[in-house]
Design brief:
Layout (H helix, E strand, L loop, with lengths): L19 H11 L3 H23 L4 H6 L8 H8 L7 E3 L10 E6 L7 H13 L6 E6 L4 H5 L2 H9 L3 E8 L2 E5 L20
Parallel strand pairs: 1-2, 2-3, 3-4
Antiparallel strand pairs: 4-5
Helix pairs in contact: 2-4
């Protein structure tokens, strides 16, 4: 389709040309920047390593289910793996003050309080980086619908201000984006994606 001619030869007075900026904006709503794919891939690799750690130590799977020493959840290693992505995104949580980039990644893995990841994303976008935030990505290994739905009005309010909150549910075996707003939901969001080969 020739977008330059769109609207010129149509009888619909409401038809208009699609600018390059609008086209790129439409694409960005469903596509994922490479640094987001890299973040997902690194988190998946870390999750897989964490899942396999008891077996790698010679422990059988049944015993591992009942061991809860927390020794396998090396969060420092995870954030060290993600650190190089900070040239593209603000990474939260962090020991340093975020720089205020348009893209933000909130990592919410094995949180003591599930809603903390979504709440942190909302607070950062609404209060601490409101003028610069465009997309806030929550990457989590947990999604609880009833805990998340309480923030639906907050997500809508951010969207009206041009800030998209995107939620990625990740496991060692794949990932999926779960839309947090009915207006932006599409069939593409519900595609289960296999692990990214890095």
């Amino acid at each position: 389709m020739d977008y330059r001619k769109r609207g010129e030869n149509q009888k619909d007075p409401a038809a208009k040309e699609l600018t390059v900026k609008e086209l790129l904006s439409a694409i960005s709503e469903t596509e994922y920047p490479q640094y987001i794919l890299d973040a997902i891939s690194r988190i998946q690799a870390w999750l897989l390593e964490t899942v396999n750690a008891p077996t790698d130590r010679g422990m059988d799977a049944v015993t591992a289910m009942f061991e809860d020493d927390g020794g396998d959840m090396d969060m420092e290693k995870l954030f060290a793996d993600l650190e190089s992505l900070e040239q593209y995104v603000d990474l939260i949580p962090n020991t340093r003050r975020p720089e205020g980039r348009p893209d933000v990644v909130v990592v919410s893995i094995n949180p003591p309080d599930y809603e903390c990841g979504v709440r942190t994303a909302l607070d950062y976008a609404a209060f601490f980086n409101r003028k610069r935030s465009k997309r806030v990505w929550v990457i989590s290994d947990t999604f609880v619908f009833w805990d998340t739905i309480r923030y639906a009005a907050h997500v809508d309010a951010l969207l009206e201000q041009g800030i998209a909150l995107r939620f990625i549910l990740v496991t060692p075996w794949g990932w999926v984006e779960i839309p947090l707003n009915g207006e932006v939901a599409s069939n593409r969001h519900f595609l289960w994606r296999s692990p990214i080969k890095g």
